[in-house]
Design a protein that fits this description.
The chain contains 33 helices and 15 strands. It is an alpha/beta fold.
């Protein structure tokens, strides 16, 4: 190990960590704590180093040099970001055709939290900014202090001690860097041991495209750009920065090795004949100044936005790109975890896709920082070369770069598109995921009646519904045939859904079997009062009419009203657009008063009752007009009123539709169970709802049937030890035992 260079030791540490994580799996997840300690040690000196370094170097700077650095720095930053914009436009061409609906997301009812640019960039309380590690605000504070010190006549009395302190902080960082191989080994082992490959499989399109962007820009575009304008060779740059880049990849953070990165750039400058002490001093100014600004690593992470649009079956149109690119520029000033939701919301891309991004950060955070670090290297070398006066545009090199980069990019995009077309065939769509959902509750014996009919066992005199259920050992549950995600039939014609799952749980608790009785659309109240069902377990809104004519349980779920409409329909995208419409019509199912409440916001709107959701879909396909002679051509149904939860599920089952809320705020309603009219049975159901809410049953079912997260028993992550060696040892032991038995 002593004969190996630091970069080789770091690379070896990463590889050994990956192998350790793969071999031992979750048994070595605790090693992530050691990695966190290493990152913390690296990070503790960084912010003070940036702060004091800026104060010292700006304080000693002349006004002319300061203007020159800022001018050239902004020019090259603009050049680099424009390269990023080009790739953000062309890389989505890698995505092949793909269709998929969207599950409901709780983000639908959550208000957008605006960026706090003031807190991010204005150090109203510099000590709070330092405590919260708000780098942009700390940098701005340091710049102003440096500018103030610049004009002081006796400034060296302050700058010399700060200079010594900066060197001391740098020495501490160098001491910690010596244990980098151990730190990155622990980080790699911890990350790999807990990595879920099944989660990442659905993200392969985004991961591969982003990886392509990082490889092209880091190892082709930026090296060519540096060689076109500066005297520094790519070979020298990669040789000097290799160990630092590997450490950045392992830790997933640029800032933890910032002092080391600054030293690397100074070493690169020393390798050339034009090197001057002034050029090296400028590194201490440019690097901290450049850090708060967007870098290409963060910039390119926004390729997730066109990926999310493509993945949800609604690829971005050409007219969307100006909004996308401008929002990317603004959002890139903050962390992607903060900026991406803004861009997704602006382009009306379902926010639940953001959860996919969160999963992807396990990998992309480490790739992103490598490109981000090389962006800073390129920006610093270009700015220093320009400030030093030896910037030289090499025309021949530029033409060569243009040809090589264009050909390589085109071939890579075509190749990646072909790869994704092949591999995405094995990735299940949301519809396929829904069709594979299993009932979570213990499954009771059941029958599904073909038609709705009265209970064949009338109540005895004085008997309540609960007693009859116990006497018959059967629970009659009313359900709607096409009410996904509450009740519907999957690909195997099995009756499933949130309400069906709850019915099995209720029957389990009552220790009875089930009779599922289909509700005739429009006859719910009549059939309930004629004793067709003991309880209806579907998405029944709490309404005045139902409260008057039916016995209702307490609410078991709050839902948000929304419209289901075609994807190409822009009429209901927001309140301002809808409020200006001369006329429109929404359909609804047996809930006239709720439709009336909804339309109270839009006096020009109208409503039309349909028997079931299939009628709305049939209308859009011109089938309803053929079936129903009363349905005239003068009626135009623009959208269907339902809950956002149900509408989202319908977009999965029926492509070409979207969920919108044109109201100025979210209107909630409660779902209830209509029950047979007697106090004992209703009281039992209410108590059952309370109990099953407290034990998490409702939440568990909600996660799967509404949010689309399949319920799986927690399993250990795959590892060589658990999945290969232990099974073989157990098999070998069994074979030996069998052999001994035969001998005896």
């Amino acid at each position: 190990m002593k004969n190996l260079s630091l970069s080789s030791q770091v690379l070896l540490g990463v590889l050994l960590g990956i192998l350790t994580g793969l071999f031992f799996g979750e048994e070595v997840a605790w090693m992530g704590i050691i990695g966190d300690v290493f990152i913390g040690l690296l990070q503790m000196t960084v912010l003070p180093y940036i702060m004091f370094s800026l104060i010292v170097n700006i304080g000693r700077l002349s006004m002319d040099n300061g203007k020159k650095i800022i001018r050239y720095g902004l020019i090259f930053l603009f050049l680099l970001l424009n390269i990023g914009l080009i790739y953000l436009i062309v890389l989505p061409l890698s995505f092949p055709a793909w269709t998929s609906g969207n599950f409901y997301s709780t983000d639908f009812v959550q208000p957008n939290v605006p960026f706090d640019f003031v807190k991010l960039y204005i150090p109203a309380n510099p000590f709070e900014s330092m405590s919260d590690n708000v780098v942009p605000a700390v940098v701005l504070f340091s710049i102003f202090i440096g500018l103030g010190v610049m004009k002081l006549p006796n400034k060296e009395a302050l700058l010399k001690p700060l200079d010594v302190l900066t060197d001391g902080l740098n020495q501490v960082n160098k001491m910690i860097v010596k244990i980098t191989p151990i730190g990155v080994f622990s980080i790699a082992a911890g990350v790999v041991s807990t990595l879920s490959w099944s989660d990442l499989s659905r993200l392969q399109g985004y991961l591969l495209v982003y990886l392509l962007a990082v490889i092209l820009i880091t190892f082709l575009v930026l090296p060519y750009l540096i060689s076109i304008f500066t005297p520094y060779s790519s070979k020298t740059i990669f040789k000097i920065t290799r160990s630092t880049l590997i450490t950045i990849f392992a830790t997933g953070k640029i800032i933890v090795v910032y002092p080391q990165l600054i030293e690397n750039i100074k070493e690169i400058i020393k390798s050339e004949e034009n090197s001057t002490e002034e050029s090296q001093d400028r590194v201490d100014i440019i690097m901290p100044l450049a850090y708060p600004f967007p870098n290409l690593g963060t910039f390119m992470i926004f390729i997730f936005v066109p990926f999310a649009a493509w993945f949800t079956g609604e690829a971005m149109e050409f007219m969307d790109y100006p909004i996308f690119l401008s929002s990317t520029f603004l959002s890139s000033f903050v962390a992607p975890i903060t900026g991406l939701p803004f861009s997704l919301d602006l382009l009306k891309i379902p926010k639940e896709t953001f959860q996919l991004f969160v999963v992807s950060t396990v990998i992309t955070d480490r790739i992103r920082v490598v490109l981000g670090a090389f962006h800073l290297i390129a920006l610093t070398l270009l700015t220093i070369t320009a400030c030093g006066g030896y910037l030289n545009f090499k025309k021949g090199k530029f033409i060569q770069a243009l040809i090589v980069i264009t050909i390589t990019s085109v071939i890579s995009i075509i190749g990646l598109r072909s790869l994704l077309e092949s591999s995405m065939k094995n990735i299940p769509t949301n519809l396929e995921i829904v069709n594979n959902f299993k009932l979570i509750s213990p499954q009771q014996d059941f029958i599904v009646l073909e038609n709705s009919k009265r209970n064949p066992n009338p109540k005895w005199r004085g008997e309540n519904t609960l007693s009859r259920i116990k006497r018959r050992s059967k629970l009659r549950v009313g359900y709607f045939e096409h009410a996904a995600p509450f009740s519907f039939r999957n690909k195997d014609s099995m009756l499933v859904g949130y309400g069906i799952d709850l019915a099995h749980q209720l029957a389990t608790d009552l220790e009875v079997s089930l009779e599922f009785v289909p509700i005739v659309p429009g006859n719910l109240i009549v059939e309930m009062n004629k004793d067709h069902y003991d309880i209806i377990m579907s998405d029944i809104f709490l309404s005045g009419r139902y409260a008057e004519e039916l016995e209702l349980s307490k609410p078991y779920l709050d839902v948000s009203l929304a419209l289901l409409t075609r994807k190409d329909n822009k009429m209901f995208d927001n309140f301002d657009i809808t409020a200006k419409l001369d006329t429109f019509t929404i359909s609804y199912i047996d809930r006239k008063e709720i439709a009336k409440d909804f339309l109270s916001f839009f006096p020009e709107g109208g409503s039309y009752p349909v028997r079931e959701i299939g009628d709305y879909f049939d209308y859009n396909e011109n089938i309803l007009k053929e079936k129903d002679s009363s349905f005239t051509d003068s009626i135009v149904i623009d959208a269907h009123l339902t809950s956002a939860e149900r509408a989202a599920s319908l977009t999965v089952l029926k492509s070409g539709y979207k969920v919108v809320n044109p109201l100025p705020y979210h209107v909630n309603n409660s779902l209830v169970f209509p029950v047979a009219r007697d106090n004992v049975w209703r009281a039992y159901v209410d108590k059952w709802i309370d109990f099953r809410k407290q034990d998490g049953t409702f939440d568990k079912l909600y996660e799967q049937w509404i949010l689309g997260n399949p319920h799986l028993e927690k399993e250990k992550k795959w590892s060589v030890l658990e999945n290969v060696i232990k099974p073989r040892l157990a098999k070998s032991k069994t074979n030996k035992t069998d052999t001994l038995k035969l001998k005896n």
